[in-house]
Specification:
Length: 162
């Protein structure tokens, strides 16, 4: 565990019919006082396993300001992905929408070992002087990202990505 992480054993999951499905979950919650953010990792172990790795995935969607998606893509291509790796944020994939509600979004997925590592990596990344310089430069002609949405995802036991 990292820093102030508090492990908590949670009762077994129940199926829709109310039966114990054999999986056990470990909840690792951590609050960062500086950013007042909470991260949660839920790790499930298959029957017969004591525990498994708690890889978590974060799906993020950046809605670009009008006409600024090329600038968002340039910033990620030229700087952000490299800075992510430097700070322990694993790049999984990056996409733009071809068919869907919006054609001015960048959707991407990153991965972390656990919730504590996620909190530490984001804090370190945001404090990086190079990142702060890149943001300032990319906003020279106005803000390039209008809105950010994110989700923390955990793989199901049957997911090819673990």
């Amino acid at each position: 565990m990292h820093g102030n992480s508090t492990p908590l054993q949670v009762p077994p999951l129940r199926s829709a019919q109310g039966r114990d499905d054999g999986r056990r979950h470990l909840l690792d919650a951590r609050r960062s006082g500086a950013e007042n953010l909470a991260a949660v990792t839920i790790c499930s172990a298959r029957p017969g396993q004591r525990e498994r790795s708690c890889v978590i995935y974060e799906l993020r969607v950046y809605e670009a300001a009008t006409g600024r998606l090329p600038d968002v893509n340039k910033r990620f291509n030229d700087h952000t992905t490299k800075l992510f790796e430097r700070h322990g944020i694993k790049n999984v994939g990056y996409w733009t929408t071809d068919v869907g509600e919006s054609n001015h979004e960048l959707t991407y997925m990153v991965a972390f070992k656990d919730a504590g590592q996620r909190m530490d990596a984001w804090k370190s990344f945001r404090a990086d002087p190079e990142w702060q310089r890149v943001v300032t430069e990319s906003h020279r002609n106005g803000v390039i990202v209008a809105k950010v949405r994110n989700q923390i995802l955990i793989p199901t036991p049957y997911s090819p990505m673990q």
